[in-house]
Amino acid sequence: HSFNPNSLAAFPSLHAAYAFLIAMFFWKSIKRRWLRPILLIHPLMMGFTIVYGCEHYAIDIFAGWLYVW
Q1: Which pTM does this prediction carry?
Q2: Cα 65 to chain centroid, rounded
Q3: Cis peptide before 12 (omega within 30 of 0)
């Protein structure tokens, strides 16, 4: 049988959850509504990085975001 290092990964991903939590915290403080989507760059890049780096599965990321939502 093969060893899968992700079998012990945390669910949900707190890396993804905290990045999204920060974006949501500052969301209403941005008065210019067209600038608000810029806040989502960090959570999206965090999600990409930890999935691409094989630290978490994509479902872990979505669960972290859902937890914050």
Answers
A1: 0.81
A2: 6
A3: yes
Per-residue b or e along 46-58, where b marks 16 or more CB atoms closer than 10 Å to that residue's CB = bbeebbeeeebee
Distance from C-alpha of 69 to C-alpha of 67, rounded to nearest angstrom: 6
Q: Are 9 and 57 in contact (CB under 8 A)?
A: yes
Residue type (1 letter), 25: F
For residues 51 and 61, is the Cβ–Cβ distance under 8 A? yes
- How would you write the pLDDT of the chain (69 residues) with one tens digit per residue? 556 655 666 789 999 999 999 999 999 999 999 999 999 999 999 999 999 998 888 999 999 999 999
Q: Which residue is associated with the tokens 């669910």?
A: 11
Q: Cα–chain-centroid distance for residue 2? A: 28
